[in-house]
Amino acid sequence: MLANTKKNIKLLKRGEDMFQVRTDLALEARELYQEDKQQEIPGVAVDQEELSHTLITRVEVLDQQGEEIMKKAKGKYITLESAGLRRPDADFKDEISQILAKEIRKLVNIEKHLKVLVVGLGNQHVTPDALGPNVVSKLFVTRHMFQFYNKENDDDLAELSAISPGVMGTTGVETTEIIKGIVANIKPDVVVAVDALASRKMERVNATIQISDTGIHPGSGVGNKRQGLNKETLGIPVIAVGVPTVVDAATLTNDTIQMVIDNFAKEAKPGSQFYNMLKDLKEEEKYQLIKETLEPYGVNFMVTPKEVDEIILNLSQIIANAINIAVHPGIDLKDVNRYLH
User: Fold this and answer.
1) pLDDT score at 222
2) Each residue of 23-64: pLDDT tens digit?
3) Can you say whether the dihedral through the CA atoms of 31, 24, 72, 299 is positive or negative?
4) Half-sphere exposure of 105 (CA within 13 A, CB side)
5) Which of 10, 181, 212, 243 allows an S-S link to 77, with CB 3.0 to 4.6 Å?
6) pLDDT tens digit string along 158-176?
7) Is residue 263 assigned to a domain?
8) How confident is the model at residue 4, as a pLDDT?
9) 87: number of Cβ within 10 Å
């Protein structure tokens, strides 16, 4: 077994493009590069801010070199991490909603008389993919009021509309085609797209929120990327808000095996063949070996926690609150929960 493992590792080392760890998070793409090259990515700027219960990581892809290495479009990616997101109490919900609203404002460039279209991507009948539709159901939409009273602007409210377009498997229509038609008709200033994502680490599932100004690919979280929603396709800025709600089975197994390896390495004698093999095994090599083992049997499933129903409900409330606070000038924390239904 040891000989076969070493043989497979040698095959993996022949080319870096032979593996691809599943992740939609910019900070994880950066981590993969750092683990391999032991240096920061050229063309990428990073800074971190640690609050009481939340770590904020800001990754900015500055140029084409950074785009090619990260496999991410040029722009800003802001990640909020906190284990409290999985089981938030009322106080934490309020705290994280305000933090997220502040970060959204920075990307949207909020003005008083803003027209916003929120797109809730995903399948509302599949709980891990239902984040977007759940967020839309909790927003304070106002466009109909502006239309009814023939108002051009309001000091307290943005002109907010929202749509859950469903998925191509049930509508037969590409999501981007639907949104293009809506954008052409109602002419919003900005689109905010909310979707489920995938992570390469168990601890980040349902404990991370990523926002970016680069748009989004519907279906990212379940490995079914469609045509992108971004400034190039829609002609207006697109802010993406996403939460990793799933990992694939290979990632889950990889994390578990890493814990086992850490324990084995403590017991193995330094300098022994087994110790050296464990020490030299890179994360992507472990992942690829596991993936190659699982895929012939069709068992590289997408995995989500059993409490996902409650988690999605809480996360959708946090994100909806943050969007309501960010875009409506007259709505603050004391008001926001009144608009949930």
Assistant:
1) 47
2) 899 999 888 888 777 788 899 999 999 988 899 999 999 999
3) positive
4) 16
5) 212
6) 999 999 998 888 888 889 9
7) no
8) 42
9) 13
Distance of CA 340 to the CA centre of its chain: 23
Residues 6+ apart with CB under 8 A from 91: none
Sign of the alpha-carbon dihedral angle for 298, 303, 242, 178 = positive
pTM greater than 0.70: yes
Report if residue 290 sits inside a domain. Answer: no
In this prediction, the residues of the chain whose per-residue pLDDT falls under 70 are 1-22, 111-112, 218-226, 248-303, 337-341
Q: Is residue 78 part of a domain?
A: yes
- Among residues 160, 87, 114, 112, which one has the least CA distance to residue 320? 160
Output the 3-class SS for the chain.
Answer: CHHHHHHHHHHHCCCHHHCCCCCCCHHHHHHHHHHHHCCCCCCEEEEEEECCCCEEEEEEECCHHHHHHHCCCCEEEEEEECHHHCCCCHHHHHHHHHHHHHHHHHHHCCCCCCEEEEEECCCCCCHHHCHHHHHHCCCCCCHHHHHHCCCCCCCCCCEEEEECCCCHHHHCCCHHHHHHHHHHHHCCCEEEEEEEEECCCHHHCCCEEEEECCCECCCHHHCCCCCCECHHHHCCCEEEEEEEEEEEHHHHHHHHHHHHHHHHHHHCCCCCHHHHHHHHCCHHHHHHHHHHHHHHHCCCCEECCCCHHHHHHHHHHHHHHHHHHHHCCCCCHHHHHHHCC
Q: Which domain holds residue 181?
A: 2-14+27-250+301-331
The domain total for the chain is 1
pLDDT of res. 5: 39
| CATH number assigned to the domain comprising residue 108 | 3.40.50.1450
Q: How many residues does the chain have?
A: 341
